[in-house]
Amino acid sequence: MEALTRTRAAWWSGLGEWNAHTILHPVLPPHIGPRPPRDPRPGDLWRDTSGLPHVVKEYGPARDWRIVLDHVRPGMPRRALQSVLSTLLSDVEVRVRWPRLAALKADVQLMLTTRMGPAGQNGRPAYLACATLAALLAVEVQRVVDVLADYRRTLSPRLTGSQRLA
To answer: If you average pLDDT over residues 121-132, what whole number do you get?
Structure first.
């Protein structure tokens, strides 16, 4: 389930329940003045008052200042500025639930105890791939294995070198 979420391999299926929300980061009040703070650390904020309108800059890992907020009113209260910065510097977290894949837990337990039956003849990775596909399609694992085996049988066999010459 984690692999499907991180790789977004099954986004097309519509089987995942996506829930996005923002995570607000509390920010320290920025240094205010016409010159930057003496020993800034990455992530430190500076409200540059050397020009109008004021800007807020963030010190980055590359040891430079980049503007994160421009057109700050000179009389803007510190708390209002912190609230705006907290919103601007927030992250979006996406949580995905895969309710249909809950059935995979039983298949994984079967795989770990090597009680896969005929569906496990091709090995554990193949069984897990078939079990995942079966959970997404809401069918039995054996049905997926049978369809794949039937597909392999219908492929034309490769011709060997001597057959090509004949």
So the answer is: 80
